[in-house]
């Protein structure tokens, strides 16, 4: 287990260094930070002084070393658009994105797994056919179109839910949350559902496929021959083994929820990191873009490590294989 963890940590370090290098290249080839900070009217002396202050007069390797060191401490400089530290902007926006992604993941799991089990156990029924048809729509329709349709129906036509913003939030020090207020929950429902639909349909189809595969296994036939009840076979044996590969897919999809919340946050004007990134791209705010890229990569690396550990703990074949080496 220790060797397994060390190997994964080494891989994670390589990934983060690669991402840091890509983010650093944004500073080198996407605009001139000196020109962005001082404007066109600055004197050559002012430009040269700022270049020295930013360390841009040093060699490429030294600049990258400084950038990687600062990035490891969560420092990415000052936003070119807002004139504030990027770390403080990320700290303000991260709770909103995490809250949106966590609720979307919860919706996807709570509905996706039971619907997948139902579709596997009631194969060929009318309900299953309807579910599979709807799942194709959920996979095929773009996220922004789903969001617009939900806004049109629930916010415009029925006027049940708000169509933009985060609503009322409660502060816990520097952390903000809308989960503890009715207005915050109402604002969260539409964007979280929009973000969850693709993941929900994907999980449902994966669970159905894996469940059908497990039900054809020899040990399930043996369990039936022993006279075990269908409930015990389905939920005590089949579902348990079905969830092993689902853990991997679900864990990685959680990272995708955070990374690809950009579209949902833009449609609903949700004040999270995705909306901040879109605004940064429009203004060529390179420090914010670099910070977002590194943070999302870190989230993916951490989630991937946790998923690997869970997979290692759940599947005894990996432990036996690891012990054999």
Describe the structure.
The protein is mainly α and 325 residues long. Strands 1-2 form a two-stranded antiparallel ribbon. It has helices at residues 2-29, 33-38, 44-53, 60-72, 86-121, 126-140, 143-157, 182-215, 218-225, 230-259, 261-267, 273-283, 286-314, 316-324, and strands at 170-172, 175-177. It is 77% helix and 2% strand.
Strand line-up in the sheet with most strands: 1-2
Helix proportion: over 70%
Q: Radius of gyration over alpha carbons?
A: 24 Å
The total count of strands amounts to: 2
Low-confidence stretches: none
Helical/strand content category: mainly alpha
Sum up the overall morphology in one term.
Answer: globular
Separate helix tally: 14
How would you characterize the largest beta sheet?
2 strands, antiparallel
SSE arrangement:
Elements: H1 2-29, H2 33-38, H3 44-53, H4 60-72, H5 86-121, H6 126-140, H7 143-157, E1 170-172, E2 175-177, H8 182-215, H9 218-225, H10 230-259, H11 261-267, H12 273-283, H13 286-314, H14 316-324
Antiparallel strand pairs: 1-2
Helix pairs in contact: 1-4, 1-13, 5-6, 5-8, 5-10, 5-13, 6-8, 7-8, 8-10, 8-11, 10-13, 11-12, 12-13, 13-14
List the defining traits of the structure above.
globular, single chain, two-stranded antiparallel ribbon, mainly alpha, 325 residues, 2 strands
């Amino acid at each position: 287990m220790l060797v397994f963890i060390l190997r994964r940590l080494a891989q994670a370090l390589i990934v983060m260094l690669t991402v840091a290098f890509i983010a650093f290249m944004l500073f080198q080839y996407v605009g001139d930070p000196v020109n962005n900070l001082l404007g066109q009217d600055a004197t050559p002396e002012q430009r040269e002084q700022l270049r020295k202050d930013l360390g841009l007069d040093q060699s490429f390797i030294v600049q990258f070393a400084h950038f990687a060191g600062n990035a490891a401490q969560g420092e990415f400089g000052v936003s070119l658009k807002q004139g504030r530290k990027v770390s403080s902007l990320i700290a303000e926006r991260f709770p909103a994105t995490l809250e949106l992604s966590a609720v979307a993941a919860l919706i996807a799991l709570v509905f996706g797994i039971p619907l997948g089990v139902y579709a596997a156990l009631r194969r060929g029924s009318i309900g299953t056919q309807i579910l599979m048809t709807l799942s194709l729509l959920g996979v095929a329709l773009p996220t922004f179109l789903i969001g617009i349709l939900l806004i049109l129906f629930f916010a415009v036509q029925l006027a049940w839910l708000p169509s933009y913003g985060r609503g009322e939030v409660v502060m816990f020090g520097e952390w903000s949350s809308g989960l503890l207020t009715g207005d915050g929950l109402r604002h969260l429902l539409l964007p979280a559902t929009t973000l969850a639909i693709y993941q929900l349909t994907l999980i449902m189809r994966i669970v159905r496929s894996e469940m059908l595969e497990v039900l054809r296994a020899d040990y399930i036939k043996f369990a039936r021959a022993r006279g075990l009840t269908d409930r015990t076979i389905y939920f005590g044996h089949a579902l348990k083994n079905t969830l092993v590969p689902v853990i991997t897919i679900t864990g990685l999809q959680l990272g995708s929820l955070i990374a690809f919340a950009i579209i949902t946050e833009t449609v609903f004007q949700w004040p999270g990191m995705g909306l901040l990134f879109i605004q940064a791209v429009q203004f060529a705010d390179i420090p914010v873009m670099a910070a977002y890229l590194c943070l999302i990569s870190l989230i993916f690396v951490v989630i991937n490590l946790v998923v690997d550990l869970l997979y290692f703990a759940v599947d005894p074949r990996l432990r036996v294989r690891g012990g054999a080496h």
